[in-house]
Write a structure and sequence with these properties.
This protein has 8 helices and no strands. By secondary structure, the chain is an all-alpha fold. It folds into 3 domains: 55 residues, no CATH class; 46 residues; 58 residues. The mean pLDDT is 82.
Length: 183
């Protein structure tokens, strides 16, 4: 094998979780080479591991996008069944209950695509208050989950506190400067 092919095989085997001994036996390289390549190729190994995990998550519907697709598809099936249901034979309450549950689960997966807060060059009290008002509007419109709203409001609240402290500190510094000049 060429050196580049050996390195690629090393990266693949490390990403799959093989030990140095297994790699040494299969690729016929020394452990010192494994150690050296591990340091040199760490980013590639990590990237390959991450890609493998993402594929695995996707195949088991563990990613948000996959869950949304699955929930949406199931919800469409339920709606189709409801549309064509003979209400004299089917239990419409059960179908409606399933529809509502899937709709709620799908709503919980919603994440706003627009950033919640995009400050300009400077963050000031007015911009933070506008972001809080925007968050309130998005909550009322049902565009954010309760968890997302809690996280965003906590960040905005912390920003507002930090801004207030900075403003107060600046005013105290000004007062101290005036008092020092008088003495």
């Amino acid at each position: 094998m060429k050196p580049q092919e050996l390195k690629l095989a090393f990266v693949e085997m490390r990403a799959e979780g093989h030990s140095y001994q297994e790699i040494c036996d299969k690729l016929h390289i020394a452990k010192a080479t494994c150690t050296k390549w591990e340091r040199e190729l760490r980013d590639q190994i990590d990237r390959m591991k991450a890609e493998a995990m993402e594929t695995l998550y996707e195949s088991y519907h563990m990613t948000k996008a996959s869950r949304i697709k699955t929930l949406g598809s199931t919800l469409e099936s339920i709606e189709t069944a409801l549309e064509g249901a003979d209400l004299s034979e089917a239990d419409p309450l059960k179908l409606m209950d399933m529809k509502l549950k899937y709709a709620e689960a799908l709503k919980k997966e919603y994440t706003a695509t627009a950033p919640a807060f995009t400050p300009g060059e400077r963050i000031d009290g007015k911009a933070i208050l506008e972001a809080l008002a925007s968050l309130l509007d998005r909550i009322r419109a049902g565009e954010v989950t309760a968890d997302q709203a809690t996280r965003e409001s906590r960040v905005l609240s912390d920003l507002l506190k930090a801004y207030d402290l900075t403003e107060i500190r600046a005013k105290v510094d000004e007062l101290e400067a005036v008092l020092n000049r008088r003495q």
